[in-house]
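Section 5.1 Outputs to date
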Amino acid sequence: MDQAAGPAGGPAAPPGGWTRFPQAGGQETTAYHFGVAEQQHAPSGRRVVIGSDMRHPVSEELALRLEERGLRVVRCGAVGAPDSPWPQVAEQVGRLVAQGAVDSGIVCCWTGTGVCIVANKVPGVRAALCGDAQTARGARRWNDANVLALSLRATSVAVAEEIVDAWFEPTTPDPDEAANIRAVGEIERRYRRRGAPTGSTHADR
């Protein structure tokens, strides 16, 4: 079990944790690393991160279910820890996925929309808010989604488990959707180059 405290600080249980890397212009980036022992004891070799902004039975049970499946689980935010701001949690989850530190991510908040919006701000993340198993299958198959967003308000533990089971079913992106999936990446790069506004009257002030 790993608790990712994130770049903002806080406890990170060894041997895994966040590492800061200096960048040009005095900037820095962060990455979560797994220790050697963690890599050796991940039975399936698959890693997943799950984060929530509030303590809730859905996120807690999902973390346990994923471990029962043999996945190495990184917990972010309020999954086994105090409540955290939803933008911070979603960014941590999105960064781990985008950096390739984990294979997939799950983000939870009361409606699921906030964490989904933030996760999709991280370049390389394709987050999908799913309320049923079939939508989760479609997100993986047709959209090559790599972060699952869940509503803690609208999703019971039983339904959440069905959604997660569908999300992790062995699948590959539909070849017929390859051009569309590539187009998503190109749109992301296009607006990143332009430095486009966020579209928020609060954030753009």
